[in-house]
Amino acid sequence: MRFPLVLMLQALWASVCQTMQHYPAAWGHYDVCKSQVYTDDGLTWDYMACQPEAMDMTKYLKVSVDPPNITCGDPPETYCALENPYMCNNECDAQNEDLAHPPELMFDFEGRNPTTFWQSSSWKKYPKPLLVNITLSWNKTVELTDDIVVTFESGRPEQMVLEKSLDYGKTWQPYQFYATDCLDAFTMEPKTVQDLTQHTLLDIICTEEYSRGYVWKYDKTVRFEIKDRFALFAGPRLHNMASLYGQLDTTKNLRDFFTITDLRVRLLRPATGATMVDENNLSRYFYAISDIKVQGRCKCNLHANSCVFDKEKLNCECEHNTTGPDCGRCKRNYQGRAWSAGSYLPIPKGTANTCIPSNVGPVIRPNVSSLGVANRNQARVCDNELLRCQNGGVCLNNLRCQCTSAFTGLLCEKPRCESELGGCGGPDSGQTALSPASLPTLLLVLLLGSTLFREVSYWP
Ligand SMILES: [Ca+2]
């Protein structure tokens, strides 16, 4: 009875493997950190490079606006429409919830009508510049995966800079300059992202694309184009992510370019809609932003596939015996070799570069109080909750199964008597690889594999 079942499973496994070869993109997700595989030595863990899914990062940020009193409404103020200086009935009052425009309204759920937005005081101190910094802080390294999009409720500013920090706001670098006239504002030649090449991808440009006149009432967004930059390596529809991953892996500058801890929008000059500022109607000039989109993922150095928001902070749930907010170091007792980030290469599963025990072959001291206590970051051979040692075996410190006398193998899956008698082929024959006791585990492996079939909807 056993033989046909073995053949059937082998055929199933072969077809699963074959199918997966046709879906390399699904593997390119890097969404699994480890899986159990069956080798001649029994069940062992196979470790892979892994990363959390991309998500809406605006749910996890702290926003600050500087100068602090620049938000409108304290004292209450009225505004004129930019298009019509005689329509001055828009009111802002910080004390009245319906008329207040606090910074949080840049990150609330959009889709309601009318839109909700943050708004600055108007340009009452003209000709002194109306300067506002909006800083978004994650207190965590984040890798951007999609365009940053700022949607204005006012006219788009005539001059602004988007900046980034990689050291929690200590130092700042420009990401992109925006102006109606780049030469005049920043003495930079105007460019667009389409002018960039693989060799100039890291160049900081000034663009006039997003600052054109307020008359285009529906041109409300200012964009920092992440995907167009990815496309320089991955192709126009990002179909060749392997090429991008390969570049990210080998070029630290490129990786760092898309990595941030903070973003800062520096608003330098509001929309005026004309060459002259109308000094009699300064209530026309202000900034208002209804929405800011930032998509990204926690940077976990390819050592975690999830990131949790706990105590107001994002933290990677580190695997591969690593620890720290970015899985940036080896755990205690796992410093057998220097820490190293995981690698996207070779495509598609990458290299985990796990931390290994300080003393290879850790001394296991069975300790009654620690039996079955799961250390969630540790590489587990067995687990009393999920992957129970079989045939009466007991899991010791998640590191090995203590088998009863009749069984052997990593999970006590091999009948000892049969192997001694030569009846079940012995542990080295390979026949035991599909013994009935190991079938549930093989099915688990198949099940895990099948979860990787999901289609890629956007950059992973
Ligand atoms: Ca809003």
From TrEMBL:
<keyword id="KW-0424">Laminin EGF-like domain</keyword>
<dbReference type="InterPro" id="IPR000742">
    <property type="entry name" value="EGF"/>
</dbReference>
<feature type="domain" description="EGF-like">
    <location>
        <begin position="378"/>
        <end position="413"/>
    </location>
</feature>
<feature type="domain" description="Laminin N-terminal">
    <location>
        <begin position="46"/>
        <end position="297"/>
    </location>
</feature>
<dbReference type="InterPro" id="IPR002049">
    <property type="entry name" value="LE_dom"/>
</dbReference>
<dbReference type="InterPro" id="IPR050440">
    <property type="entry name" value="Laminin/Netrin_ECM"/>
</dbReference>
<keyword id="KW-0245">EGF-like domain</keyword>
<keyword id="KW-0732">Signal</keyword>
<dbReference type="Pfam" id="PF00053">
    <property type="entry name" value="EGF_laminin"/>
</dbReference>
<dbReference type="GO" id="GO:0007409">
    <property type="term" value="P:axonogenesis"/>
</dbReference>
<feature type="signal peptide">
    <location>
        <begin position="1"/>
        <end position="19"/>
    </location>
</feature>
<dbReference type="InterPro" id="IPR008211">
    <property type="entry name" value="Laminin_N"/>
</dbReference>
<feature type="disulfide bond">
    <location>
        <begin position="403"/>
        <end position="412"/>
    </location>
</feature>
<dbReference type="GO" id="GO:0009888">
    <property type="term" value="P:tissue development"/>
</dbReference>
<keyword id="KW-1015">Disulfide bond</keyword>
<dbReference type="Pfam" id="PF00055">
    <property type="entry name" value="Laminin_N"/>
</dbReference>
<protein>
    <recommendedName>
        <fullName>Netrin g1a</fullName>
    </recommendedName>
</protein>
<dbReference type="GO" id="GO:0009887">
    <property type="term" value="P:animal organ morphogenesis"/>
</dbReference>
